[in-house]
Amino acid sequence: MIDNITYNDFVNKVHSSSDIIKVISAYVPLKKRGHNYWGCCPFHQEKTPSFSVVPDEGFFYCFGCHTGGNVFKFLSLVENISYGDAIKLQAERLNIPIPQKKKSDREIEHENNIKNLYRIHEMAQAFFHNCLTKTSYGKPGLLYLKKRGINNDIINLFHLGFAPPGWDKLSSAFIKRGINENLLLQVGLIVKKKTSGYYDRFRERIIIPIKDEKGRTVGFGARLIKDGQPKYLNSPETLLFNKRNLLFGLNESKKYIRQYDYAIIVEGYMDAIALASHNIANSVASLGTAFTAEQCKKILRYTSNIYFCYDGDSAGQNATLRALSIARGQHAAVKVILLPDGSKDPDEFLQKHDAAAFNKLIDNAVSFIDFHLHYIMQNIDYTSLEGKLKAVSFILPILSSIDNLVESNAYAVKVSQTLGIDETDLRNELQKYRKHSNQSSAPSNFQISQTINSAGDSAAIKAGRHIITRIWQEPDVLDYILATTPINEFENKQHREILTFLTEQIHNNNFINDITASEKLSDDSYTELSRCLVEKKNTNESKLLDDYLKIIHRAHLEKSYLEHSLRADELERSGDDRFQQELIKIQRIRKEMDGVK
Ligand SMILES: [Zn+2]
């Protein structure tokens, strides 16, 4: 056993001996353009590169599927191993001897903390389940579930529960049992009041425990049983609860996924529960619309066949397109289950139809090309010439991604028939496209995917990225930045976390690099940091630091202007005099806003 200083030395040695370009190039052909290297992302399916590496900073980031990190993160994802094992793998490749690691006090403390977090989730799950099944508080919950056809077997299988009404049922019970309130706060079971004290986050809701694939509860979803908002409420992201890495229901369904040799991926946990109630036991929920490469890897341990059944609305359709590209990038065989008009999601479909009807939908699941055609028919008016061109440019990259010629020919026929285009014309276009995309991997004429432009992001978010990059490269500017713009003025949560981390490191004279960042930041913030650093090298935009700070400050003022205006309206409507004070505040903000134009 060796002590921790030596282990850190070992990690640093492996890190400094690793050339991120060389490591990634072994998996992905990269081409240099400007400061960045570009290639087709190994974590999702694409023809034009949106995967970029900056060797100076030691980060990679994909603008298509938003995966990013340092060299070890890359190895852990591409080899499907843990971060620690990725360090060891790289050490082996570099012939650096691996020391036996002795745990530091901090690591022991961290492990104990994790154990406590698991324990508290376990206790809370039992509390809610008990409340549903054994107390009078749970009656409305049971009634609601029964009405939706969810029987006791399913309630017990998923350990469904009910959060009692009242503001402190859980917190007072847990604090009586000696649970530290900080721990409850940390897992989001209680919420801090604005004044002082706490209240229970979940009240009068059906509780759906969200478990990892080992069956350990790591978070909760909660659904209202009456009308109101928000209909769904989830645990906040914690050390254990990271939605990117979780699939709801995997622990319960993995046996069946393996047995039937395919998995059905739905958006929400209520969809997965509804399917299970109808004896369709091989489904999991991706917990929202963004299917990730990490989730895909988990499925691939049990089957290589994935059927997506996302919501029928346009958000669901777009999510399906993205999910298909990620799954195909991981070499999964994919299909899409289409819901008939009038059914929002699988849950709603199963309220009106039986299992046999859903099984018929499964039998009729369409190929990924057919789904793209379906998408065109729903979203593009292909009767006009302009629409036809749009449809063709949408479908060409998809057709050209099929390696099997027989298959791609069959689809070319189908596409030309559906869109009413001459088949020869389509084939010519396809050939041109193929030639062009082969050429474009040559450095002289290198096309980079359009997805990298962050048009959807606000000016304040972009400014936040520039400021973070600036501090990373030049830590001395930090104090100036903090003096003019406090961290809470940054609207993006990940940016605030990154800035807090940077401040801590810099003020303690600690070294900042990708390793410390990966240890200290949450997954989402670490990925966002990768994006900041990779994106900066890619744009030539160079405003002055003060301009970026002004953008942040102004966005912050606009937000509080809006908040106070809404509050003033509310107070005035309810005849509350305090709206006058709000008006004064609004005027003051307005004046300040005029000052930072
Ligand atoms: Zn990607």
TrEMBL record:
HAMAP family: DNA_primase_DnaG. Residues 261-342 form the Toprim domain. The keyword Cell cycle does not apply. InterPro entries: DNA_helicase_N/primase_C, DNA_primase_core_N_sf, DNA_primase_DnaB-bd, DNA_primase_DnaG, DNA_primase_Znf_CHC2, DnaG_bac, DNAG_N, DnaG_primase. Monomer. Interacts with DnaB. It catalyses: ssDNA + n NTP = ssDNA/pppN(pN)n-1 hybrid + (n-1) diphosphate. Keywords: DNA replication, DNA-binding, DNA-directed RNA polymerase, Magnesium, Metal-binding, Nucleotidyltransferase, Primosome, Transcription, Transferase, Zinc, Zinc-finger. This is DNA primase. Belongs to the DnaG primase family. Its EC number is 2.7.7.101. One of its GO terms (molecular function) is zinc ion binding.
